[in-house]
Specification:
single chain; 293 residues; alpha/beta; six-stranded parallel β-sheet
């Protein structure tokens, strides 16, 4: 029998799949029920049925695109339902919730750390901030072992195709194979802090192994432009990106006045966590998977 039982919401997503593999490799009994987190009764039943030692709440609405109400319902109400179910059915369970760099929003300083003020500027960021605040209430008022990882952009071959990173790596693979002729993108100077999801789920696990709960920024600490990501993707298929990439203003998003780059020194110091995958290695892995597909 497994030493520990883990419950993962959102187990079929990018992070959930890597986390499931990590926990199974460590001898956990892992449960990932297809539960609607907006249904309080269903969430409580899932917790009651599994009595987990650790719960990783990863289920979220990440792409808004006109679904503002659903985003708040899933990300805020869903988190509340998980918190309340654990309080009632498995109060000793250790909880991780997935936060986001979008909680920082309109920042004035870079890199950002746990002391940087939160100023979200979109519904997704607001919903993630509200979920974090709910988690803190349960941690402080009910003594729950609850942690939040403030996660910067993390990618993998399992990343959804609606994200620009997969758009780039799929295009590079398709252009190499003669299935596509060009790639239209927005501002190539936009900066992001990109890591590998496999590294980030390891940080999630480490948070729940600590003697006391806390919140941590999880990031590589390196800001890279979209153009650098493109260059790495086309280099992986031995092509010069410039003849194939077209800048289209319709894909433009306003540039942040301050780059979104995370300072994960606290995680390095307290958790012993460091990212193990470079951007070039991440992109090459994604492109190789897209070539096979």
């Amino acid at each position: 029998m497994a030493d520990r039982i883990a419950l993962i919401t959102g187990v079929t997503g990018q992070d959930g799949s890597y986390l499931r593999e990590l926990l199974l490799s460590r001898g956990y009994e892992v449960h990932g029920p297809a539960v609607d987190v907006t249904d309080a009764g269903a969430v409580r039943s899932a917790v009651a049925a599994t009595r987990p030692d650790e719960c990783y709440h990863l289920a979220a609405q990440t792409v808004v695109n006109g679904e503002e109400v659903a985003t708040v319902q899933v990300n805020v109400s869903g988190t509340l339902h998980v918190l309340e179910a654990l309080r009632l059915e498995s109060p000793a369970c250790r909880l991780f919730i997935a936060g986001s760099s979008e909680m920082f929003g309109n920042v004035d300083t870079s890199p950002q750390n746990e002391a940087t003020p939160f100023r979200p500027r979109n519904v997704y960021g607001v919903s993630k901030l509200a979920a974090w605040q709910l988690m803190r209430v349960y941690r402080e008022q009910h003594g729950m072992f609850a942690c939040c990882g403030i996660l910067y952009n993390h990618e993998s071959p399992r990343r959804g195709e609606q994200f620009v990173t997969r758009k780039i790596t799929r295009a590079a693979a398709r252009i190499k194979l003669g299935l596509q002729s060009e790639l239209a993108l927005g501002n190539l100077e936009a900066v992001r802090d990109w890591g590998h999801a496999r590294d980030y789920v390891r940080a999630m696990w480490l948070m729940l192994q600590q003697p006391a709960p806390d919140d941590y920024v999880i990031a590589t600490g390196h800001g890279r432009t979209v153009q650098e990501f493109v260059e790495a993707a086309f280099a992986a298929v031995d092509l010069d990106w410039r003849p194939y990439v077209r800048v289209d203003p319709k894909f433009y998003r306003p540039l942040e006045k301050t780059p979104f780059v995370g300072d994960a020194q606290k995680a390095r110091r307290a958790l012993g966590w460091t990212p193990e995958t470079t951007l070039e290695e991440l992109v090459a892995e994604m492109v190789a998977t897209d070539l096979q597909a």
